[in-house]
Amino acid sequence: MATTPERIALGRIGRSHGVTGAFRVWPYADDFERFTRLRQVVLTRGNKTLAAVVRSVQILPDCVLIQTEEVTRPEDVATWLGGDLEIAAEERAKPPDGEFFHDQIIGLRVETTDGQLVGTITGIIEAPASDVYVCRDGDREFLIPAVDVFIQSIDPAGGRMVIAPIPGMVD
């Protein structure tokens, strides 16, 4: 998945379907309905990109079938096979209040409630009970469960997360 600050990857481009250049997309998220609202997309593979107008979308049980104005032959689909289907970052759906996309969390500066700098979020581990933020300060690494008892506030615009650690969490 190749998400950039300008574009967000929605899914991996799969093989063609039929002879009209329609192609399968394997979504990276569970919201397949999101694809029915797409009007403009960008196909990417390596350094190649193609801006495309969406002609039709069909939701299948395990993927999405997309037809664009620009990709009209199975041979065209082969060019993009294994690449990403992306949209402009400003067009992505908004998360519910109090929830954030991973790219909004990674890179945040982490401070304790008393202002002590802990480090920077460098990754997120998706665990069954809750995500765990990986916070690094040089060679030191801290794992912070993404639960309300520890996370006091998240401010992506301000580049900051405030935590209330328990003893030993960030020592």
Describe the structure.
The protein is mainly beta. 6% of the residues lie in helices and 46% in strands. A six-stranded antiparallel beta barrel has the order 1-2-5-4-3-6. The mean pLDDT is 93.
Look at the helices and sheets and give the structural class. Answer: mainly beta
Number of helices: 2
Along the chain, the helix and strand elements come as: EEEEEHEHEEEEEE
Strand fraction equals over 45%
Low-pLDDT sequence parts: none
β-strand number = 12
User: Percent of residues in helical segments?
Assistant: under 10%
- Enumerate the strands of the largest sheet in spatial order, edge to edge or round the barrel: 1-2-5-4-3-6
Strand count, sense and barrel status of the largest sheet are: 6 strands, antiparallel, barrel
Q: Give the CA-based shape.
A: elongated
pLDDT averaged over residues: 93
